[in-house]
UniProtKB/TrEMBL annotation:
This is YHS domain-containing protein. Keywords: Signal. It comes from the Bacteria. InterPro entries: YHS_dom. Residues 57-93 form the YHS domain. The lineage of its organism: Bacteria, Pseudomonadati, Pseudomonadota, Alphaproteobacteria, Rhodospirillales. Residues 1-21 form the signal peptide.
């Protein structure tokens, strides 16, 4: 039942998306990863599988860089410079879309506070329930997502908002970036 509900939600999101910034997922904030600092994830203490990760670090609207057709915000100029030196290292997989959604064949938005770093790559998910499902079998979902990605990558990015989903209530303290 859970998988059927999640699959239905993913199909609904996939049918409604149009690109905002090329292939990169950009929501109503106008920033990649909703204005959170991509480099800062790699300095956060990651919790065990199945546990909620620390909240993402908000970037600042005055410390930005452009990559993959989107503007990225950073908490510090040092983080921005690290990102620019190797953006593929820090940018989330699947152009910032939900890793579980990609595994199921759709580009859906991702909540920047539902994250995990696996083998040096940043993955995001859409809701706590989806993150829990993804965490139950990360390796298989990554294999599935990688298989699906070649067909999905050229398609338009989602333009849906993860913040408008009531399932995400309580998963973030503030909208980013900091003005």
């Amino acid at each position: 039942m859970l998988k059927k509900t999640l699959t239905g939600a993913i199909v609904l999101f996939a049918m409604s998306g149009a690109a905002l910034a090329g292939e990169q997922y950009v929501d109503e904030t106008g920033f990649a990863i909703s204005g959170y600092d991509a480099v800062a994830y790699f300095n956060l203490a990651q919790k065990d599988d199945g546990m909620m990760q620390p909240h993402a670090v908000p970037g600042r609207a005055d410390i930005t860089a452009d990559y993959n057709g989107a503007t990225w915000a950073f908490a510090t100029a040092e983080n921005r410079d690290m990102f620019l030196a190797d953006p593929a290292k820090y940018a989330p997989k699947y152009d910032g879309h939900c890793a579980y959604g990609v595994a199921k064949g759709a580009k859906v938005p991702a909540n920047p506070n539902l994250w995990r770093i696996v083998d040096g790559s940043l993955y995001l998910n859409i809701t706590p329930e989806v993150a829990e499902t993804w965490n139950s079998d990360i390796a298989d979902y990554i294999m599935d997502a990688n298989d699906e990605w070649s067909d999905l990558e050229p398609k338009s990015a989602s333009d849906d908002s993860w913040m408008e989903m009531s399932d995400n209530d309580g998963t973030y303290d503030m909208a980013a970036p900091i003005k």
